[in-house]
Amino acid sequence: MTSQAGNVNTIKNGNRSLIFRYIRKAPISRAEISKQSGMSKSAVTMITNALIEEGQLCEIGQSDSACGRKPILLDIVADYRYAGGIALHRKQTGVYITDLKSNIVAFCSIRTERFDTPIQVLDWACNMLLKLAEEKQIPREKLIGVGISAPGPVDYKEGVILTPPNFEMFHHIPVAEYVEKKLGLPVMVDNNAVLLAMQEYILLTKQSLNAMVIIVSDGIGSAIITRGKVYRGHSGYAGEIGHTSIDLEGIPCECGNQGCLEQYVSMKALKARFEFDSYERLVDNAYIGDRTSLEVIDFIAKCLSAAMVNAINFFDLDRVILCGDFAYRNELLLQKIRQRVGGMSIIGRVHEVEVAFSTLPPEKSNASVTAAILGAYFNHMLD
Ligand SMILES: [Zn+2]
């Protein structure tokens, strides 16, 4: 096993880690941490004062509490440490450096097709990461490690990319081991849907403990959070909603199943089936009432809802978050999905199930590449 959280120099003390859990979402007062965490006010004061002395926390402004003495808010000192990130994707390879608040401080990307071998891609990424760190005058000892994201399935324990479709170049490549040796830093690899789910969970104030994140692009990736933890299943590959069948007699899939969701509503499948080039143009046409375009949106809503309802019923989810290629002007699609999910899910009769597109700003979404390594640093691993 090459890439483990244990390699990262983490916030080991449980109470310190708990305090960071609240502060990472938004600046917060000592009193509010005490109230929300159940820790005594004196313990919160003692620990946060020590963290301020160490330079990890700072006091900022004042909160907007309506009356009485306005408490000082605590915030993370963002540049106390930095995390590196390498986003391996089918079209683009991106290199990121984020601070402790998941702000991107440096970024560079290149078209993946420019390389012939995975080693060339990784060498470029490692060299670029060092170059960016140097440009930003970030010393090596301030880098806590490197997060790598890739399309699933990924063996996150061994740091190996397995067999994501349309990504043959990286099949069975032990990326963590290679980057770890090359950079001498701890490395964690996970699939992009899991990392986005972590990022959503950690950064959003309005959040759910039982959610599914679905990313649609040329493939379909998803991740499940149950009771605040990433649900990994027996071997770490849980969440393959793209390979759940929505038609028993449907299109055969490489996985051996028939009628897999991915065969219908991945962007690649949709373009082949309905013969369009630009999804954005199709959506624009749907908004001005073009019948054919509306039928495509209906088809997407119908297929996605069927798979979503299965997931909602299996896991008793209260939130499904969509990301990826359908984000463009998504109100129409969302309305159609919500109508269907609302009427089809038995769980929906018990409690509200929110279906929404990710509201993370693009830069925070992209910064999810470092979510696992930051999670390890703060001892906030979701599993
Ligand atoms: Zn399949």
Secondary structure blueprint with pairings:
Elements: H1 14-23, E1 28-29, H2 30-37, H3 41-54, E2 57-62, E3 72-76, E4 82-88, E5 92-99, E6 104-111, H4 118-135, E7 143-150, E8 154-155, E9 160-161, H5 175-183, E10 187-191, H6 192-203, E11 211-216, E12 220-226, E13 229-230, H7 262-265, H8 267-274, H9 279-287, H10 291-315, E14 319-324, H11 331-344, E15 354-357, H12 362-366, H13 371-377
Parallel strand pairs: 4-7, 7-10, 11-14, 14-15
Antiparallel strand pairs: 1-3, 2-3, 4-5, 5-6, 8-9, 11-12, 12-13
The site of zinc ion has 5 residues, from loops.
Observed structural traits:
383 residues, alpha/beta, Arc Repressor Mutant, subunit A, Nucleotidyltransferase, domain 5, 5-stranded mixed sheet, 13 helices, binds zinc ion
